[in-house]
């Protein structure tokens, strides 16, 4: 398997921090971030979430938000292991910023 990108690892971190969330909420986290390093457009976040789900890092359930059906993602055990290993030293220089 190809190594996950910093964007994909960061998405795992956002889902871990927020709990069940939609790809839209993940994209909003990037938009609201004060860091100039972390930028994630909807065009990159949505496919990354789909990839992480397909690879078994995220679990998907169907829920409701504002009265509409939506996909909610949570961290799968495989995703938690991957996130923890990414956060262990030595950190990539870009991740430390």
Characterize the structure shown.
The protein is α+β, with helices and mostly antiparallel strands. 53% of the residues lie in helices and 16% in strands. The chain has five helices and two strands. It has helices at 6-18, 23-32, 42-54, 77-87, 93-96, and strands at 58-65, 68-75. It has a two-stranded antiparallel sheet. The protein starts with 5 loop residues before the first helix and ends with a helix.
Tell me the layout of helices and strands:
Elements: H1 6-18, H2 23-32, H3 42-54, E1 58-65, E2 68-75, H4 77-87, H5 93-96
Antiparallel strand pairs: 1-2
Mean pLDDT: 86
Largest sheet: 2 strands, antiparallel
Helix content: 40-55%
Give the ordered list of helices and strands. Answer: HHHEEHH
Give the uncertain stretches in residue-range form. Answer: none
Strand fraction equals 15-25%
Shape: globular
Helix/sheet category? alpha+beta
Tally of DSSP helical segments: 5
Strand order of the largest sheet: 1-2
Distance between the termini: 26 Å
Number of strands: 2
**Over all CA atoms, what is the radius of gyration?**
13 Å
């Amino acid at each position: 398997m190809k190594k996950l990108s910093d964007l994909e690892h960061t998405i795992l971190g956002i889902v871990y921090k927020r709990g069940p969330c939609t790809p839209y909420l993940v994209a909003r986290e990037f938009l609201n971030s004060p860091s100039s390093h972390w930028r994630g457009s909807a065009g990159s976040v949505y496919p990354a979430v789909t990839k992480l789900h397909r690879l078994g890092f995220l679990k998907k359930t169907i829920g409701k938000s504002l009265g509409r059906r939506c996909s909610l993602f949570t961290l799968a055990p495989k995703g938690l292991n991957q996130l923890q290993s990414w956060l262990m030293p030595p950190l990539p220089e870009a991740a430390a910023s």
